[in-house]
Every structure is written in structure tokens, then in C-alpha cells.
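=== RUN LOG ===
request id: a7f3
mode: sequence -> structure
chains: 1
length: 412
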Amino acid sequence: MWTERVASSLGAMARITDRGDREQILDAALAVVLAVTALLEATQPTRNYSHPAVMVPATLLVTLPLAFRRRAPVGVLVFVGTVAMVEALVVTVPASAVQFLALLISIYTVVSLSSRRAQVRIGPFVLIVATVTMLRDPATHSAIEALPTYAIIVAVVLLAQVVRRSREQAARLRQLATELVESQAEAEQLAAAAERLRIAREMHDLLAHSVSVMVLQTGAARMALHDGEPQVRELLAVVENIGREALEELGVILGLLRDVVSPVPWELTASNARLDRLVETMRSAGLPVTIRGSAHVALVPQALQQTLFRVVQEGLTNSLKHANAAVTTVDISIDESSVVVRILDEGEPGSQSLLPTGGNGLIGVQERVRAVGGVVDCGPVPGVGGGWQLRAILPLAAEALSDEGVAADAIL
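=== RESULT ===
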């Protein structure tokens, strides 16, 4: 998920960079065209070109800075306006239409891109520049003749305001569209979570009812047996205890589904006591189990304990079902970087069991281990004629898993 977000951010930055480069090229081209046009205008016979030492540099200084109008709109306007005003004070010639256009473009850029405060502050300066250049223009003989110039400036300002509002509205619409997509995604997630909760409740009700009946019937059968049959009574007591533990775990899992941010209860950790109960249960079911390294469980981060327990549980269940209750060894080892869980049985290939097969236990184990960044492998023991092993490597870096991730793993 985080890689997709990084790629999306880099793509957005690349698009912004490309757009900025295109705008910079267009502004530079506009500045060059205006500069060339202004120089050609100055050489017309109708203009008094008696001060080239002033007018040529001034023409270039008024037009070429437009190449940077988007980067520094206020600075460009101040520079262009100041040069135009100084030129008008030094040289008395008819006002240049190209230079006036450059001034209008600078005004438009400031109004469309700069803040309201910057616009208010630059307004008096624009009026001063326009007034000085018109007063020094020999073609302007009265205030009435100057009105069209002011009208053009006002029209440019209004146009820039319209463009600015249109741009802001477009940005707002894009933001709303993004928020709408995010809201739809959140709504879909909530709907999926609600459906999962409904299914979980249905499963809980079904399993709780069935297991409760089994526990009660087993307890009744155990109480009905005579004292002369202690072995059968003991087996029924084991079945009854397993059913009660299953009911308790169903209640814990349903609680996690209702509130996935709650901390994981101790019942869903791989404490030594819980592993010991699992081993004793398997032994009572006829599976000879030896466990080594169970003391290492106390060193395993709580975020990994549920995954560790499920790996051991699934491995022993497979040995009981497929290896015909052959001798099985559970080995738990830990080092600085990982926890290794290995379940090895000595069953012969093709061994059959009376228990039902064909479930998704190994698939679930693989999904659990991959969720915490680990790896799983299973298959015949290399170099040995018989036997089967299930090995899982759980990285200790998963200690940083959040409570939400732990809760989700517990539900799985």
C-alpha cells in the first residue's frame, strides 16, 4: 500500500514539474516576442527614435522580465512599471503599445496569482505608473483622452479576477471529487466490515449452539458412566474441556470483530500454559508429542504469539490427521532476527486417518505467516524415507505491528 502511495506522489510531482517547465518556456517565448516587437515598433518612422541609448535598454528591461512573471509576479510588475515610468520621464515620445501590453500582462499576472493583500498594496503603484506615462505621452492632451487607458487597466483586472475565481473553483471541485472518492472507499470498507461482522455473528451463533450441545451431551455421558470405566470418563472429560475452550475462544474472537482496536486478550497469546494445554490435548487424542524450546515463547513479542500458536496447532492437527498419530516433535528456536517453529512427524507416506481431511489449514497458516513478513515451507523431510515437516520463520521485526494488525491476525 505504501509503495502505491509513494508512486502516486512521485507521479504527481512529475506532472507538476512538466507543467511548470511548459509554463516557463511559454513565458520566455512571450517575453522574446514582445521584446522583438517593441524594438521593431521603435524603428517606425512615426516615432522619434532620437534616444536609442535609453529606449533600447528600456524596451528590453520592460519586456524580457515577463519570462519570470509566474515565479515572481509582484517583483516583475514593480520592475516593469518602474522602468516604464523612468523611461517616460527621461524620453518624451509617444507611448509604446507593446510596452503597455507588457505592463498589462504584469498586472494580469499579479491579480490572477498573488494574494489579496499583495494586490491592494500594488494598486497605488499601478495608478502612479499609468498616470506618469500618460502625462508624459505627447498624444494625451486631456484627462478624457486618458480614460480609455484606465478602462483597459480595469478590464484587465476584472478579467484576471474572473480567471482566478474560475481556477479556484476548479481546484475546489477537484478536491471535492477526491474527497468523494475517499468517502466512497470508506463507505465500501464500512459495508464490508459490517458484512464480515454479520457473517461472524452467524458463524458464532451456529458454532456456539452446536459446540454447546456437544459439550453438554459429553458431560452428560461422562456423568452417566460407571466408576469402573475411568479411562472413558477421562477421554470424555478431555473432549468436554476442549469444547469449553472452543466456546471461550469464539467469544473472544467475536469481541475482536466488534472492536478491532481493543487490545488482544491473553487468551489469544501463545503462553507456555496455552501451548502445554494444546500438547496435552493432542497426547490425550493419541498423538505422541514432544516439545522443545517452549521456554522461548516468553521472549516472543506478543504481536507474533498468536501466529506461533496457530502454526503449532495446525502442524499437530495435520500430524494427527494425516500421519496416523505418528511420533511428532515441536521445536521452537529464537535468535536475534527471527523465531523458527518446526513441527516434524515420523509418519509414513500415504498414512490414512479416520479424521476428515481436505481443509484449508495450511493455506491459513501461510496467510498468517506472510501477514507478519515470514515464510512457510512444508513437505517430506529431506534425506529421510518417511516423515513430514512444517516450518515457519517469523521475523522479530513484526514486533512493531499495530494492535489493529494483531487483532486482525487473531480473527484469521
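=== NOTES ===
The CA atoms of residues 151 and 200 lie 73 Å apart.
The longest helix spans residues 143-224.
=== END ===
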